[in-house]
Amino acid sequence: MEEKVIGRTLYLYLHDEVSDLSCQPIIEQITMANDSSYMTADEHIDGAVEKAKHPIEKIVLSINSGGGYVDSGMALINVIEASKIPIEADIHWGASMAFVIAQACHVRKMYKRGKMMWHNISSGVQGDHETMKETIKQMEQDKKLIDKLILDRTKLEEKDLKSIYRTKKDRYFYADECIKLGLIDSII
Q: pTM to 2 decimals?
């Protein structure tokens, strides 16, 4: 995963499928940045002896992802929500689980030609009847957690989500509509 530190801002990139492979390095970087002993690369180079409480003042998470695995995304969301350093999502394309990750960020910005997409949670299930029943129970719990996050962070209402789920289609949102619905805070 590529990362950059410019001044007191840490830039991270979710430009792939949401998976353990793409989320784990981002989780590690956010966790390290929130550690009071973390120093920026410039501070290491300059040989600074005194460590600032939080040398990173802002984290920008660039999102260009079609989504992916719920469990991987929820792990990243947990770290975003726990971060003492504000995390800004800069959204090019955020679909499915990447849409939810964007909603968890403290500040949400979208490029004027960006878009987001939301749909009902989905899964591929194999195994015996009991295994499939357990998977469905887990999916229902995940859906409740995700819906609560979306409802808490946006102007969408439960009836809006139910409408998306009933149609069984992907629902696309472009920048102007995202502002109106509270999916983003501003357009870049």
A: 0.88
